Amino acid sequence: QVSFQVSGGKPIAVLRVKVEPQPHVVDQTFRFYHPELTFLKKTIRLPPWHTLPGAPVGMPGGEPEMFVRCSDPDIICETKNMGPGEPQDIFLKVAGGPSPQIKKFFVAIYMDAWLAAPVQIWQFYLHSLQRLDVSCMAGQLTRLSLLLRGTPALRRVRVFTSHPQELEVDPDGAFLLPANGIQDLYIGVRPRQAGNRFIYLNLVDVESHQLVSSWLLCLSCRQPLISKAFEISLPAGGGRGCNKRITYTNPYPSPRLYFLCTNRPDLLQFKEDSFEVAGGEVYTIGLRFAPSQSVGEEEILIHINDHEDKNEETFCVKVLY
Fold it and tell me: 228-320: CATH homologous superfamily?
């Protein structure tokens, strides 16, 4: 209720204002995954002011000053004008909660000092995950376990991952998580490329579609030692693949079982994914290369692993298309 009064305090008009908040028109959405109970510090560059919809045209004095405000008062959100011609950045500092909490907030960008109407509204999601550091080798299976803690109620859950080709879980399908109980989740990581990477792992209630737990796997993956290198030439643009053979000698005096895998299953397939060879004997590995439509070169790794999926040897095949 709004009252208009004269100097003596007598009201001359009374308005009843009904306010109906409308949802934001979101121009851009950002989603960040971060270890739980830590601060996310992020700098985001603002686009040039003249590219924003609704930006004033022909402003006197050159570039306008830009202002930002956050919907959450507990989040540090600020920007500074770096001078004419310089890019302007937004700095965010957000306190993450416990896993699997998701913090949602908005950032409004203004080009007027009165903050009357935003020219852009950005939506942010911050996913808090349990961090797990994993040191591994490309092409080799690294096994570890995660501890699952049950909620007050019995749940039927399933695990989903961002990289199903490089991460296997046991149990694979849906399973029961006992109420207030503890259960192990066994996972196997087999990265295809060396380097540092992130893999996301979510435990989801399949009946209510509720997120129960989340993990951030921080992989530090090293390249295996290359014991042999080959170079072959294949025709490009052909519709048929090519078959090749390479040999492997069992260095042990007793029979051994070996498993084969590659970092480029889209380009190379094996005649047999596993083979057994007697002590000191030579085995011929059949390779099937997929056709390539473009000219170039690719380095394909062939990992020869033992019965525990530990890397015995790695061959490198340089293919010239």
Answer: Immunoglobulins (2.60.40.10)
